[in-house]
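Need FMN reductase's 3D structure for a figure. Predict it.
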Amino acid sequence: MKPLKLAVVSAGLSQPSSTRLLGDRLAEATERLLAGRDRPVEVRVVELRGLAVDIANNLVTGFPGATLREAIEAVTEADGVIAVTPIFTASYSGLFKSFFDVIGNTALAGKPVLIAATGGTARHSLALEHALRPLFSYLRALVVPTAVYAASEDWGTGGDARTDGLATRVTRAAGELADLMAGRPAAPEPVETVIPFEQQLAALRP
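Structure prediction for FMN reductase:
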């Protein structure tokens, strides 16, 4: 069976990054759950930190460079996307938003997306619902019900009587993404359309 494609978009700025770590944990859980259904997965990680200049140039010129184009294709051709951002000033990072600004408005339509974020304190967790979920709803993606937020104190904890631990939330969200991906046919291989030179020349004639 043709492998499903899973793209992980990480907007972490530091190295190592807790944002990338959360993305990796979500990807591993999703891959494991799909493997249990005999659905192989190819995971592609898109680190926005190294694409910042390319993204800015694309916003100014309207044309992506080769590296940015490959990153955009990894996301738009995926069967599922995990999008993770650090929270700055109660919202997603500017780099995160700029990347999705250069992707076509219809490119994520119907695509399963798991949203996640990291931050210093739990009080920023609502940014997932008032910032990230509306963004991907506008792009007409299928956003999974469970969004995963990881504050500094969440790493290595098991939760308490009122809240689930991070590992539980990761597993639940990954399960929801795996359900949506398993229900989709694998994304077709891109086919490059070649327009004959005569046809291109004819289009330029008055």
